[in-house]
Amino acid sequence: MDKVIVFTDLNAWKEGHRLVLMIYEVTRNFPEKERFCLTIQLNRSVVSVTSNIAEGFTRQSKKEKINFYYIAISSLTEMQNQIIIAKDLNYINEDKFSKIWNQTIVVQKLIFGLIRGATSRIL
């Protein structure tokens, strides 16, 4: 296993970044009327996931790290809700939805791994 030196070395961040790219790609095709609504909400929530992973990584306090990782989970859950809405409005097809949804699960598991790792060092 490679040593983690910067936040971009974290698998949670790498997989989160893949999710960011997936969301930006799919929201490009949303209707213009959603530009300042669902599109911007999806983009902001998914960017928040990787931003909070990055910020948590730099925190010295384990408690602060865990807090930022939980904020990343919250943003991911918000994004999951929004992607369901996009699917139900037929802005994305079932195949694209499944790929994005599966990626959210990967990211979620990796973030929970970061939380477990930080928690075990506290106790």
Question: Can you describe what's shown?
Answer:
By secondary structure, the protein is mainly α. It has one domain (7-122): 23S rRNA-intervening sequence (de novo design (two linked rop proteins)). It contains four helices and no strands. The protein is elongated and about 45 Å long. The two termini are 24 Å apart. The model has no long low-confidence stretch (mean pLDDT 94).
Layout of strands and helices, then pairs:
Layout: H1 11-27, H2 38-58, H3 62-88, H4 94-122
Helix pairs in contact: 1-2, 1-4, 2-3, 3-4
Segments where pLDDT lies below 50 for 5+ residues?
Answer: none
Q: What is the total number of structural domains?
A: 1
Tell me the helix content.
Answer: over 70%
Query: How far apart lie the N and C ends?
Result: 24 Å
Mean residue pLDDT: 94
Count of extended strands: 0
CATH superfamily: 23S rRNA-intervening sequence
At the fold tier of CATH, the topology name is de novo design (two linked rop proteins)
What structural class do you assign from the helix and strand content? Answer: mainly alpha
- So what's the overall shape? elongated
Instruction: Figure out the total of helices.
Output: 4
Order of helices and strands: HHHH
Task: Give the class-level CATH name.
Answer: Mainly Alpha
CATH architecture: Up-down Bundle
**Biggest sheet, in brief?**
none
Strand content: under 5%
Rg, please? Answer: 15 Å
